[in-house]
User: Fold this.
Amino acid sequence: MAMPRSRTAAARNARASRSDSDGYGPRQLRPVPSLAGALAAQLTGEIQAGRLQAGDRLPTEHQMKDAFGVSRTVVREAIAALKADGLVTSRQGSGVFVAQDARHRTFRINPDRLTTNADLVQVMELRLCIELEAAALAARNAGKTALQELRRCLKRIADEIARGQPAVEEDFDFHCCIADATGNPLISRFLRFLGPFIIPRPLLRMRPQRQTQAYLAEVQAEHEAIYKAIVEGNPTAARRAMRHHLERGLALNRNAPQDAPLAERPPWPA
Amino acid sequence: MAMPRSRTAAARNARASRSDSDGYGPRQLRPVPSLAGALAAQLTGEIQAGRLQAGDRLPTEHQMKDAFGVSRTVVREAIAALKADGLVTSRQGSGVFVAQDARHRTFRINPDRLTTNADLVQVMELRLCIELEAAALAARNAGKTALQELRRCLKRIADEIARGQPAVEEDFDFHCCIADATGNPLISRFLRFLGPFIIPRPLLRMRPQRQTQAYLAEVQAEHEAIYKAIVEGNPTAARRAMRHHLERGLALNRNAPQDAPLAERPPWPA
DNA sequence: GTTGAAAAGTTGTCCGGCAACATGATAAGT
DNA sequence: ACTTATCATGTTGCCGGACAACTTTTCAAC
Assistant:
Protein backbone atom coordinates (compact mmCIF):
# COMPACT_ATOMS: atom_id res chain seq x y z
CA MET A 1 0.00 0.00 0.00
CA ALA A 2 1.48 3.30 -1.04
CA MET A 3 2.01 6.00 1.52
CA PRO A 4 0.95 9.50 0.66
CA ARG A 5 4.01 11.35 -0.49
CA SER A 6 3.72 15.00 0.28
CA ARG A 7 1.14 16.31 2.67
CA THR A 8 0.85 18.19 5.91
CA ALA A 9 1.39 16.08 8.97
CA ALA A 10 -2.10 16.56 10.34
CA ALA A 11 -3.83 15.64 7.13
CA ARG A 12 -1.62 12.61 6.72
CA ASN A 13 -2.38 11.47 10.23
CA ALA A 14 -6.06 12.04 9.78
CA ARG A 15 -6.05 9.79 6.76
CA ALA A 16 -3.74 7.17 8.19
CA SER A 17 -5.84 6.81 11.30
CA ARG A 18 -8.78 5.43 9.37
CA SER A 19 -7.82 4.08 5.99
CA ASP A 20 -4.62 2.13 6.44
CA SER A 21 -5.96 -1.22 7.46
CA ASP A 22 -9.71 -1.27 7.65
CA GLY A 23 -10.80 -3.99 5.31
CA TYR A 24 -14.20 -2.57 4.56
CA GLY A 25 -14.15 -3.89 1.04
CA PRO A 26 -16.55 -2.24 -1.37
CA ARG A 27 -16.51 1.50 -1.01
CA GLN A 28 -20.12 1.89 -1.97
CA LEU A 29 -21.44 0.67 1.34
CA ARG A 30 -18.93 2.34 3.63
CA PRO A 31 -17.81 5.50 1.96
CA VAL A 32 -14.46 6.76 3.18
CA PRO A 33 -15.13 9.57 5.62
CA SER A 34 -13.60 12.76 4.36
CA LEU A 35 -11.75 15.31 6.44
CA ALA A 36 -14.61 17.73 5.96
CA GLY A 37 -17.11 15.08 7.02
CA ALA A 38 -15.09 14.22 10.10
CA LEU A 39 -14.82 17.84 11.12
CA ALA A 40 -18.52 18.36 10.53
CA ALA A 41 -19.28 15.36 12.70
CA GLN A 42 -17.07 16.68 15.47
CA LEU A 43 -18.63 20.14 15.41
CA THR A 44 -22.09 18.59 15.35
CA GLY A 45 -21.10 16.63 18.43
CA GLU A 46 -19.94 19.78 20.22
CA ILE A 47 -23.34 21.34 19.59
CA GLN A 48 -25.43 18.29 20.41
CA ALA A 49 -23.48 17.84 23.64
CA GLY A 50 -24.25 21.42 24.56
CA ARG A 51 -20.63 22.55 24.78
CA LEU A 52 -21.52 25.09 22.11
CA GLN A 53 -24.79 26.73 23.04
CA ALA A 54 -27.35 28.66 21.09
CA GLY A 55 -25.99 32.05 20.06
CA ASP A 56 -22.39 31.12 20.73
CA ARG A 57 -19.87 32.02 18.09
CA LEU A 58 -17.79 29.25 16.61
CA PRO A 59 -14.03 29.68 16.33
CA THR A 60 -13.05 31.50 13.17
CA GLU A 61 -12.22 29.53 10.08
CA HIS A 62 -8.56 30.44 10.50
CA GLN A 63 -8.53 29.18 14.08
CA MET A 64 -10.16 25.89 13.11
CA LYS A 65 -7.82 25.52 10.15
CA ASP A 66 -4.87 25.78 12.53
CA ALA A 67 -6.46 23.77 15.33
CA PHE A 68 -7.34 20.79 13.17
CA GLY A 69 -4.43 21.04 10.79
CA VAL A 70 -6.57 21.17 7.68
CA SER A 71 -7.06 23.73 4.99
CA ARG A 72 -9.66 26.43 5.14
CA THR A 73 -11.50 24.72 2.29
CA VAL A 74 -12.16 21.71 4.49
CA VAL A 75 -13.35 23.91 7.33
CA ARG A 76 -15.70 25.74 5.02
CA GLU A 77 -17.19 22.53 3.64
CA ALA A 78 -17.78 21.26 7.14
CA ILE A 79 -19.54 24.49 8.06
CA ALA A 80 -21.57 24.27 4.86
CA ALA A 81 -22.82 20.91 6.07
CA LEU A 82 -23.80 22.33 9.45
CA LYS A 83 -25.59 25.20 7.76
CA ALA A 84 -27.56 22.76 5.64
CA ASP A 85 -28.66 21.06 8.84
CA GLY A 86 -29.70 24.40 10.29
CA LEU A 87 -27.34 23.94 13.20
CA VAL A 88 -25.49 27.17 12.55
CA THR A 89 -25.94 30.38 10.62
CA SER A 90 -23.08 32.43 9.27
CA ARG A 91 -22.91 36.18 8.91
CA GLN A 92 -20.36 37.54 6.51
CA GLY A 93 -17.82 39.69 8.26
CA SER A 94 -19.01 38.64 11.68
CA GLY A 95 -18.74 34.92 12.24
CA VAL A 96 -20.61 31.64 12.49
CA PHE A 97 -23.17 31.25 15.25
CA VAL A 98 -25.02 28.32 16.76
CA ALA A 99 -28.70 28.47 15.87
CA GLN A 100 -31.58 28.49 18.32
CA ASP A 101 -32.87 25.01 19.20
CA ALA A 102 -29.93 23.64 17.26
CA ARG A 103 -30.30 20.25 18.92
CA HIS A 104 -33.63 19.48 17.30
CA ARG A 105 -33.57 21.20 13.95
CA THR A 106 -34.04 18.13 11.85
CA PHE A 107 -35.58 14.76 12.53
CA ARG A 108 -33.54 11.99 11.03
CA ILE A 109 -33.36 8.25 11.43
CA ASN A 110 -29.99 6.70 10.80
CA PRO A 111 -30.51 3.56 8.71
CA ASP A 112 -27.18 2.20 9.93
CA ARG A 113 -28.50 2.21 13.48
CA LEU A 114 -31.58 0.32 12.38
CA THR A 115 -30.20 -3.18 12.74
CA THR A 116 -32.17 -5.17 15.30
CA ASN A 117 -35.78 -6.18 15.52
CA ALA A 118 -36.25 -3.87 18.50
CA ASP A 119 -35.18 -0.94 16.35
CA LEU A 120 -37.80 -1.79 13.77
CA VAL A 121 -40.48 -2.05 16.45
CA GLN A 122 -39.68 1.53 17.47
CA VAL A 123 -40.26 2.79 13.95
CA MET A 124 -43.44 0.75 13.63
CA GLU A 125 -44.78 2.16 16.87
CA LEU A 126 -44.12 5.66 15.64
CA ARG A 127 -45.91 4.81 12.43
CA LEU A 128 -48.84 3.37 14.31
CA CYS A 129 -49.19 6.60 16.29
CA ILE A 130 -49.50 8.56 13.07
CA GLU A 131 -51.74 6.25 11.14
CA LEU A 132 -54.35 5.76 13.84
CA GLU A 133 -55.19 9.42 13.97
CA ALA A 134 -54.63 9.81 10.26
CA ALA A 135 -57.43 7.32 9.65
CA ALA A 136 -59.66 9.18 12.09
CA LEU A 137 -58.87 12.56 10.54
CA ALA A 138 -59.42 11.13 7.08
CA ALA A 139 -62.85 9.91 8.14
CA ARG A 140 -63.62 13.45 9.28
CA ASN A 141 -62.10 15.41 6.42
CA ALA A 142 -61.85 13.24 3.31
CA GLY A 143 -63.33 14.87 0.25
CA LYS A 144 -64.79 13.23 -2.81
CA THR A 145 -61.57 13.13 -4.81
CA ALA A 146 -59.66 11.71 -1.85
CA LEU A 147 -62.19 8.90 -1.51
CA GLN A 148 -61.90 8.15 -5.21
CA GLU A 149 -58.15 7.98 -4.87
CA LEU A 150 -58.49 5.53 -1.98
CA ARG A 151 -60.83 3.37 -4.06
CA ARG A 152 -58.25 3.38 -6.87
CA CYS A 153 -55.49 2.30 -4.46
CA LEU A 154 -57.56 -0.60 -3.23
CA LYS A 155 -58.19 -1.76 -6.76
CA ARG A 156 -54.51 -1.62 -7.63
CA ILE A 157 -53.70 -3.78 -4.59
CA ALA A 158 -56.40 -6.27 -5.54
CA ASP A 159 -55.08 -6.46 -9.08
CA GLU A 160 -51.56 -7.11 -7.91
CA ILE A 161 -52.66 -9.81 -5.51
CA ALA A 162 -54.71 -11.40 -8.30
CA ARG A 163 -51.53 -11.50 -10.37
CA GLY A 164 -49.80 -13.25 -7.49
CA GLN A 165 -47.70 -10.24 -6.55
CA PRO A 166 -47.18 -9.18 -2.90
CA ALA A 167 -48.29 -5.62 -3.68
CA VAL A 168 -45.95 -4.10 -1.15
CA GLU A 169 -45.62 -0.76 -2.86
CA GLU A 170 -49.33 -0.47 -3.62
CA ASP A 171 -50.09 -1.27 0.02
CA PHE A 172 -47.98 1.62 1.19
CA ASP A 173 -49.56 3.85 -1.41
CA PHE A 174 -52.94 3.12 0.14
CA HIS A 175 -51.69 4.18 3.54
CA CYS A 176 -50.18 7.33 2.08
CA CYS A 177 -53.52 8.13 0.43
CA ILE A 178 -55.19 7.97 3.81
CA ALA A 179 -52.61 10.41 5.11
CA ASP A 180 -53.32 12.65 2.12
CA ALA A 181 -57.05 12.46 2.86
CA THR A 182 -56.51 14.05 6.28
CA GLY A 183 -55.86 17.35 4.53
CA ASN A 184 -52.78 17.76 6.70
CA PRO A 185 -49.71 17.74 4.45
CA LEU A 186 -47.43 17.39 7.46
CA ILE A 187 -48.91 13.98 8.23
CA SER A 188 -48.48 12.92 4.61
CA ARG A 189 -44.89 14.01 4.57
CA PHE A 190 -44.08 12.28 7.81
CA LEU A 191 -45.59 8.97 6.79
CA ARG A 192 -43.69 9.07 3.51
CA PHE A 193 -40.58 9.85 5.51
CA LEU A 194 -41.08 6.77 7.71
CA GLY A 195 -41.93 4.52 4.79
CA PRO A 196 -38.46 3.53 3.61
CA PHE A 197 -37.47 2.49 7.12
CA ILE A 198 -40.38 0.08 7.36
CA ILE A 199 -40.20 -1.12 3.76
CA PRO A 200 -36.55 -1.77 3.07
CA ARG A 201 -35.68 -2.04 -0.58
CA PRO A 202 -34.97 -5.79 -0.67
CA LEU A 203 -38.60 -6.35 0.23
CA LEU A 204 -39.67 -4.46 -2.86
CA ARG A 205 -37.91 -6.96 -5.05
CA MET A 206 -39.41 -9.92 -3.22
CA ARG A 207 -40.71 -12.66 -5.50
CA PRO A 208 -44.32 -13.74 -5.04
CA GLN A 209 -44.85 -16.64 -2.68
CA ARG A 210 -47.87 -18.88 -3.02
CA GLN A 211 -48.22 -19.55 0.68
CA THR A 212 -48.88 -15.87 1.41
CA GLN A 213 -51.90 -15.60 -0.85
CA ALA A 214 -54.34 -16.25 1.99
CA TYR A 215 -52.47 -13.78 4.14
CA LEU A 216 -52.69 -11.12 1.46
CA ALA A 217 -56.40 -11.64 1.07
CA GLU A 218 -56.86 -11.14 4.79
CA VAL A 219 -54.81 -7.96 4.68
CA GLN A 220 -56.90 -6.67 1.81
CA ALA A 221 -60.06 -7.34 3.79
CA GLU A 222 -58.65 -5.12 6.55
CA HIS A 223 -57.97 -2.43 3.99
CA GLU A 224 -61.57 -2.61 2.88
CA ALA A 225 -62.73 -2.22 6.48
CA ILE A 226 -60.62 0.89 6.91
CA TYR A 227 -61.90 2.32 3.67
CA LYS A 228 -65.48 1.62 4.66
CA ALA A 229 -65.11 3.47 7.95
CA ILE A 230 -63.57 6.45 6.21
CA VAL A 231 -66.32 6.58 3.60
CA GLU A 232 -68.93 6.48 6.34
CA GLY A 233 -67.17 9.34 8.10
CA ASN A 234 -66.79 7.34 11.29
CA PRO A 235 -63.49 8.32 12.98
CA THR A 236 -63.81 5.84 15.82
CA ALA A 237 -64.38 2.91 13.50
CA ALA A 238 -61.57 4.06 11.23
CA ARG A 239 -59.20 4.19 14.18
CA ARG A 240 -60.26 0.75 15.33
CA ALA A 241 -59.89 -0.77 11.88
CA MET A 242 -56.48 0.78 11.40
CA ARG A 243 -55.35 -0.40 14.81
CA HIS A 244 -56.44 -3.93 14.05
CA HIS A 245 -54.60 -3.70 10.76
CA LEU A 246 -51.32 -2.45 12.16
CA GLU A 247 -51.26 -4.00 15.62
CA ARG A 248 -51.03 -7.54 14.31
CA GLY A 249 -47.85 -6.89 12.35
CA LEU A 250 -46.46 -5.06 15.32
CA ALA A 251 -47.25 -7.98 17.60
CA LEU A 252 -45.38 -10.33 15.28
CA ASN A 253 -42.26 -8.23 15.61
CA ARG A 254 -42.67 -7.60 19.31
CA ASN A 255 -42.82 -11.34 19.94
CA ALA A 256 -39.84 -12.07 17.75
CA PRO A 257 -36.39 -12.01 19.40
CA GLN A 258 -35.63 -8.36 19.97
CA ASP A 259 -32.00 -8.59 18.96
CA ALA A 260 -32.65 -10.62 15.85
CA PRO A 261 -31.17 -9.08 12.73
CA LEU A 262 -33.70 -7.62 10.38
CA ALA A 263 -32.99 -10.10 7.61
CA GLU A 264 -34.91 -12.86 9.40
CA ARG A 265 -37.96 -10.88 10.27
CA PRO A 266 -41.54 -11.87 9.55
CA PRO A 267 -43.10 -10.98 6.19
CA TRP A 268 -44.39 -7.55 5.34
CA PRO A 269 -46.92 -6.92 8.03
CA ALA A 270 -49.68 -4.60 6.90
CA MET B 1 -23.45 52.57 -3.13
CA ALA B 2 -20.16 51.31 -4.46
CA MET B 3 -20.15 48.90 -7.36
CA PRO B 4 -18.01 45.81 -7.11
CA ARG B 5 -14.81 46.52 -8.92
CA SER B 6 -13.38 43.37 -10.37
CA ARG B 7 -15.27 40.12 -10.54
CA THR B 8 -16.46 37.57 -13.04
CA ALA B 9 -19.63 38.56 -14.81
CA ALA B 10 -21.65 35.65 -13.50
CA ALA B 11 -20.79 36.25 -9.87
CA ARG B 12 -21.46 39.95 -10.20
CA ASN B 13 -24.85 39.33 -11.73
CA ALA B 14 -25.73 36.75 -9.13
CA ARG B 15 -25.05 39.27 -6.41
CA ALA B 16 -26.66 42.22 -8.08
CA SER B 17 -29.87 40.32 -8.65
CA ARG B 18 -30.58 40.05 -4.97
CA SER B 19 -28.71 42.56 -2.85
CA ASP B 20 -28.87 45.87 -4.62
CA SER B 21 -32.11 47.23 -3.31
CA ASP B 22 -33.85 44.88 -0.94
CA GLY B 23 -34.33 46.80 2.25
CA TYR B 24 -34.47 43.84 4.53
CA GLY B 25 -32.81 45.71 7.34
CA PRO B 26 -31.19 43.60 10.02
CA ARG B 27 -29.27 40.73 8.50
CA GLN B 28 -29.92 38.46 11.43
CA LEU B 29 -33.46 37.70 10.41
CA ARG B 30 -32.99 37.41 6.66
CA PRO B 31 -29.50 36.13 6.02
CA VAL B 32 -28.24 36.95 2.56
CA PRO B 33 -28.48 33.84 0.41
CA SER B 34 -25.05 32.76 -0.70
CA LEU B 35 -24.14 31.43 -4.11
CA ALA B 36 -23.46 28.02 -2.61
CA GLY B 37 -26.81 28.09 -0.84
CA ALA B 38 -28.61 29.05 -4.03
CA LEU B 39 -26.94 26.28 -5.98
CA ALA B 40 -27.69 23.79 -3.23
CA ALA B 41 -31.33 24.85 -3.29
CA GLN B 42 -31.49 24.43 -7.05
CA LEU B 43 -29.92 20.97 -6.95
CA THR B 44 -32.24 19.99 -4.12
CA GLY B 45 -35.13 21.10 -6.28
CA GLU B 46 -33.92 18.99 -9.19
CA ILE B 47 -33.87 15.95 -6.93
CA GLN B 48 -37.16 16.65 -5.19
CA ALA B 49 -38.84 17.18 -8.53
CA GLY B 50 -37.55 13.83 -9.68
CA ARG B 51 -35.56 15.17 -12.61
CA LEU B 52 -32.53 13.58 -10.95
CA GLN B 53 -33.47 10.11 -9.82
CA ALA B 54 -31.94 7.70 -7.35
CA GLY B 55 -28.64 6.40 -8.59
CA ASP B 56 -28.22 9.09 -11.21
CA ARG B 57 -24.89 10.79 -11.43
CA LEU B 58 -24.78 14.52 -11.02
CA PRO B 59 -22.83 16.61 -13.51
CA THR B 60 -19.18 16.84 -12.63
CA GLU B 61 -17.95 19.71 -10.52
CA HIS B 62 -16.22 21.18 -13.54
CA GLN B 63 -19.41 21.06 -15.59
CA MET B 64 -21.42 22.74 -12.84
CA LYS B 65 -18.73 25.33 -12.34
CA ASP B 66 -18.99 26.26 -16.02
CA ALA B 67 -22.76 25.89 -16.21
CA PHE B 68 -23.48 28.19 -13.27
CA GLY B 69 -20.55 30.52 -13.72
CA VAL B 70 -19.23 30.02 -10.23
CA SER B 71 -16.02 28.64 -8.85
CA ARG B 72 -15.50 25.02 -7.99
CA THR B 73 -15.38 26.01 -4.32
CA VAL B 74 -18.99 27.12 -4.47
CA VAL B 75 -20.03 23.93 -6.22
CA ARG B 76 -18.26 21.84 -3.62
CA GLU B 77 -19.91 23.68 -0.72
CA ALA B 78 -23.30 23.18 -2.31
CA ILE B 79 -22.62 19.48 -2.68
CA ALA B 80 -21.41 19.35 0.91
CA ALA B 81 -24.79 20.67 1.95
CA LEU B 82 -26.60 18.00 -0.06
CA LYS B 83 -24.38 15.33 1.43
CA ALA B 84 -25.24 16.53 4.91
CA ASP B 85 -28.89 16.12 4.01
CA GLY B 86 -28.23 12.62 2.77
CA LEU B 87 -29.54 13.53 -0.66
CA VAL B 88 -26.36 12.50 -2.44
CA THR B 89 -23.24 10.48 -1.79
CA SER B 90 -19.91 11.15 -3.43
CA ARG B 91 -17.28 8.64 -4.43
CA GLN B 92 -13.81 9.92 -4.97
CA GLY B 93 -12.70 9.39 -8.53
CA SER B 94 -16.13 8.42 -9.67
CA GLY B 95 -18.69 11.14 -9.10
CA VAL B 96 -21.61 12.31 -7.02
CA PHE B 97 -24.75 10.17 -7.02
CA VAL B 98 -28.32 10.71 -5.92
CA ALA B 99 -29.08 8.59 -2.87
CA GLN B 100 -31.89 6.07 -2.57
CA ASP B 101 -35.14 7.57 -1.28
CA ALA B 102 -33.47 10.94 -1.57
CA ARG B 103 -36.80 12.73 -1.45
CA HIS B 104 -37.54 11.74 2.13
CA ARG B 105 -34.19 11.45 3.84
CA THR B 106 -34.83 14.04 6.49
CA PHE B 107 -37.99 15.35 8.06
CA ARG B 108 -37.84 19.07 8.52
CA ILE B 109 -40.33 21.80 9.25
CA ASN B 110 -39.46 25.20 7.88
CA PRO B 111 -40.20 27.79 10.59
CA ASP B 112 -40.48 30.46 7.93
CA ARG B 113 -43.39 28.61 6.37
CA LEU B 114 -45.11 28.42 9.74
CA THR B 115 -46.95 31.70 9.59
CA THR B 116 -50.71 31.20 9.71
CA ASN B 117 -52.98 29.62 12.25
CA ALA B 118 -53.72 26.78 9.84
CA ASP B 119 -50.02 25.93 9.75
CA LEU B 120 -49.93 25.68 13.52
CA VAL B 121 -52.98 23.42 13.54
CA GLN B 122 -51.13 21.03 11.27
CA VAL B 123 -48.25 20.77 13.70
CA MET B 124 -50.61 20.37 16.63
CA GLU B 125 -52.46 17.57 14.88
CA LEU B 126 -49.20 15.79 14.26
CA ARG B 127 -48.32 16.23 17.89
CA LEU B 128 -51.69 14.91 18.98
CA CYS B 129 -51.15 11.77 16.91
CA ILE B 130 -47.94 11.07 18.76
CA GLU B 131 -49.02 11.93 22.24
CA LEU B 132 -52.21 9.90 22.27
CA GLU B 133 -50.39 6.66 21.67
CA ALA B 134 -47.43 7.81 23.75
CA ALA B 135 -49.73 8.06 26.73
CA ALA B 136 -51.14 4.63 26.00
CA LEU B 137 -47.70 3.10 25.57
CA ALA B 138 -46.51 4.79 28.74
CA ALA B 139 -49.39 3.26 30.63
CA ARG B 140 -48.29 -0.12 29.34
CA ASN B 141 -44.53 0.21 29.72
CA ALA B 142 -43.71 2.85 32.33
CA GLY B 143 -41.30 1.64 34.97
CA LYS B 144 -40.89 2.83 38.52
CA THR B 145 -38.29 5.48 37.78
CA ALA B 146 -40.32 6.83 34.87
CA LEU B 147 -43.34 7.22 37.15
CA GLN B 148 -41.22 9.03 39.73
CA GLU B 149 -39.99 11.37 37.04
CA LEU B 150 -43.57 12.10 35.99
CA ARG B 151 -44.49 12.84 39.59
CA ARG B 152 -41.57 15.25 39.82
CA CYS B 153 -42.66 17.03 36.64
CA LEU B 154 -46.17 17.51 38.01
CA LYS B 155 -44.79 19.00 41.20
CA ARG B 156 -42.60 21.42 39.31
CA ILE B 157 -45.60 22.60 37.31
CA ALA B 158 -47.66 23.04 40.47
CA ASP B 159 -44.86 25.04 42.10
CA GLU B 160 -44.57 27.33 39.12
CA ILE B 161 -48.32 27.92 39.00
CA ALA B 162 -48.30 28.64 42.74
CA ARG B 163 -45.65 31.27 42.06
CA GLY B 164 -47.92 32.79 39.44
CA GLN B 165 -45.80 31.62 36.53
CA PRO B 166 -47.37 30.13 33.37
CA ALA B 167 -45.07 27.05 33.63
CA VAL B 168 -44.84 26.67 29.88
CA GLU B 169 -41.50 24.93 29.87
CA GLU B 170 -42.36 22.62 32.76
CA ASP B 171 -45.59 21.70 31.01
CA PHE B 172 -43.70 20.56 27.94
CA ASP B 173 -41.24 18.68 30.15
CA PHE B 174 -44.15 16.69 31.53
CA HIS B 175 -45.23 15.70 28.05
CA CYS B 176 -41.67 14.75 27.15
CA CYS B 177 -41.48 12.59 30.26
CA ILE B 178 -44.52 10.67 29.09
CA ALA B 179 -42.79 10.11 25.78
CA ASP B 180 -39.72 8.91 27.66
CA ALA B 181 -41.88 6.53 29.68
CA THR B 182 -42.94 4.72 26.50
CA GLY B 183 -39.47 3.23 26.32
CA ASN B 184 -39.37 4.19 22.65
CA PRO B 185 -36.59 6.77 22.17
CA LEU B 186 -37.87 7.56 18.69
CA ILE B 187 -41.10 8.89 20.14
CA SER B 188 -39.18 11.00 22.65
CA ARG B 189 -36.95 12.45 19.97
CA PHE B 190 -39.86 13.26 17.70
CA LEU B 191 -41.86 15.04 20.37
CA ARG B 192 -38.82 17.09 21.34
CA PHE B 193 -38.37 17.87 17.67
CA LEU B 194 -41.92 19.16 17.39
CA GLY B 195 -41.72 21.14 20.61
CA PRO B 196 -40.12 24.36 19.39
CA PHE B 197 -42.70 24.70 16.62
CA ILE B 198 -45.56 24.57 19.11
CA ILE B 199 -43.85 26.61 21.80
CA PRO B 200 -42.29 29.56 20.02
CA ARG B 201 -39.64 31.38 21.96
CA PRO B 202 -41.63 34.56 22.66
CA LEU B 203 -44.09 32.46 24.64
CA LEU B 204 -41.29 31.32 26.92
CA ARG B 205 -40.68 34.87 27.99
CA MET B 206 -44.37 35.55 28.59
CA ARG B 207 -45.09 37.41 31.80
CA PRO B 208 -47.55 35.82 34.20
CA GLN B 209 -51.15 36.91 33.76
CA ARG B 210 -53.57 36.78 36.64
CA GLN B 211 -56.59 35.94 34.54
CA THR B 212 -55.05 32.66 33.43
CA GLN B 213 -54.66 31.27 36.94
CA ALA B 214 -57.96 29.40 36.80
CA TYR B 215 -57.09 28.14 33.35
CA LEU B 216 -53.74 26.83 34.57
CA ALA B 217 -55.38 25.01 37.47
CA GLU B 218 -57.72 23.29 35.06
CA VAL B 219 -54.81 22.28 32.85
CA GLN B 220 -52.99 20.88 35.83
CA ALA B 221 -56.03 18.82 36.76
CA GLU B 222 -55.90 17.29 33.30
CA HIS B 223 -52.24 16.49 33.83
CA GLU B 224 -53.13 14.70 37.03
CA ALA B 225 -55.77 12.68 35.21
CA ILE B 226 -53.24 11.57 32.60
CA TYR B 227 -50.74 10.68 35.29
CA LYS B 228 -53.33 8.68 37.19
CA ALA B 229 -54.22 6.61 34.12
CA ILE B 230 -50.55 5.88 33.44
CA VAL B 231 -49.90 4.85 37.04
CA GLU B 232 -52.87 2.52 36.92
CA GLY B 233 -51.54 1.01 33.70
CA ASN B 234 -54.74 1.79 31.83
CA PRO B 235 -53.86 2.61 28.20
CA THR B 236 -57.42 3.40 27.18
CA ALA B 237 -57.92 5.85 30.00
CA ALA B 238 -54.53 7.42 29.34
CA ARG B 239 -55.43 7.93 25.72
CA ARG B 240 -58.77 9.44 26.62
CA ALA B 241 -57.27 11.79 29.19
CA MET B 242 -54.57 12.91 26.80
CA ARG B 243 -57.10 13.48 24.05
CA HIS B 244 -59.22 15.61 26.32
CA HIS B 245 -56.12 17.55 27.31
CA LEU B 246 -54.90 18.25 23.79
CA GLU B 247 -58.14 18.42 21.84
CA ARG B 248 -59.37 21.52 23.62
CA GLY B 249 -56.33 23.57 22.67
CA LEU B 250 -56.60 22.24 19.15
CA ALA B 251 -60.25 23.22 18.98
CA LEU B 252 -59.37 26.78 20.02
CA ASN B 253 -56.98 27.08 17.10
CA ARG B 254 -59.24 25.31 14.66
CA ASN B 255 -62.03 27.75 15.40
CA ALA B 256 -59.78 30.77 15.14
CA PRO B 257 -59.44 32.38 11.70
CA GLN B 258 -57.23 30.03 9.73
CA ASP B 259 -55.19 32.74 8.10
CA ALA B 260 -54.66 34.72 11.25
CA PRO B 261 -51.00 35.43 11.97
CA LEU B 262 -49.58 33.47 14.85
CA ALA B 263 -48.99 36.53 16.99
CA GLU B 264 -52.69 36.83 17.85
CA ARG B 265 -53.31 33.24 18.66
CA PRO B 266 -54.96 31.96 21.80
CA PRO B 267 -52.88 31.34 24.91
CA TRP B 268 -50.67 28.31 25.36
CA PRO B 269 -53.11 25.48 24.98
CA ALA B 270 -51.99 22.44 26.95
C1' DG C 1 -10.25 -13.32 -25.25
C1' DT C 2 -7.64 -12.11 -21.08
C1' DT C 3 -4.59 -9.60 -18.66
C1' DG C 4 -2.11 -5.62 -17.30
C1' DA C 5 -0.47 -1.13 -17.69
C1' DA C 6 -1.14 3.47 -19.19
C1' DA C 7 -4.25 7.43 -19.77
C1' DA C 8 -7.99 10.21 -18.88
C1' DG C 9 -11.45 11.79 -15.87
C1' DT C 10 -13.29 12.87 -11.08
C1' DT C 11 -13.36 13.97 -6.28
C1' DG C 12 -10.51 15.42 -2.05
C1' DT C 13 -7.34 18.67 -0.24
C1' DC C 14 -4.21 22.57 -0.05
C1' DC C 15 -2.76 27.30 -0.99
C1' DG C 16 -2.90 32.27 -1.77
C1' DG C 17 -5.52 36.07 -2.89
C1' DC C 18 -9.25 39.50 -3.21
C1' DA C 19 -14.12 41.27 -2.36
C1' DA C 20 -17.88 42.10 0.86
C1' DC C 21 -19.20 42.92 5.28
C1' DA C 22 -19.08 43.89 10.49
C1' DT C 23 -17.02 45.94 14.32
C1' DG C 24 -14.42 48.72 17.16
C1' DA C 25 -11.06 52.51 17.42
C1' DT C 26 -9.82 56.98 15.96
C1' DA C 27 -10.37 61.51 14.28
C1' DA C 28 -13.16 65.34 12.86
C1' DG C 29 -16.88 68.36 13.52
C1' DT C 30 -20.52 70.35 16.24
C1' DA D 1 -18.97 66.33 25.83
C1' DC D 2 -21.42 64.36 22.20
C1' DT D 3 -22.19 63.02 17.60
C1' DT D 4 -20.57 61.78 13.16
C1' DA D 5 -17.40 60.32 9.65
C1' DT D 6 -13.37 57.68 8.60
C1' DC D 7 -10.18 54.15 9.00
C1' DA D 8 -8.03 49.74 10.44
C1' DT D 9 -8.77 45.22 11.56
C1' DG D 10 -10.89 40.85 11.52
C1' DT D 11 -14.20 37.64 9.42
C1' DT D 12 -16.80 35.27 5.91
C1' DG D 13 -17.71 34.67 0.66
C1' DC D 14 -15.68 33.69 -3.59
C1' DC D 15 -12.07 32.87 -7.00
C1' DG D 16 -8.37 30.27 -9.52
C1' DG D 17 -4.79 27.02 -9.75
C1' DA D 18 -2.40 23.07 -8.23
C1' DC D 19 -1.62 18.36 -6.75
C1' DA D 20 -3.02 13.80 -4.51
C1' DA D 21 -6.10 9.84 -4.38
C1' DC D 22 -9.10 7.19 -6.69
C1' DT D 23 -12.03 5.21 -10.59
C1' DT D 24 -13.03 4.17 -15.16
C1' DT D 25 -11.78 3.61 -19.77
C1' DT D 26 -8.56 2.60 -23.31
C1' DC D 27 -5.32 -0.02 -25.46
C1' DA D 28 -1.38 -2.78 -26.15
C1' DA D 29 0.79 -7.17 -25.13
C1' DC D 30 0.19 -11.84 -24.48
User: Anything to note?
Assistant: The CA atoms of residues 8 and 141 of chain B lie 63 Å apart. Chain B touches chain A through 54 residues (CB under 8 Å). Residues 117-141 of chain B form the longest helix (25 residues). The beta strands of chain B are 88-91, 95-98.
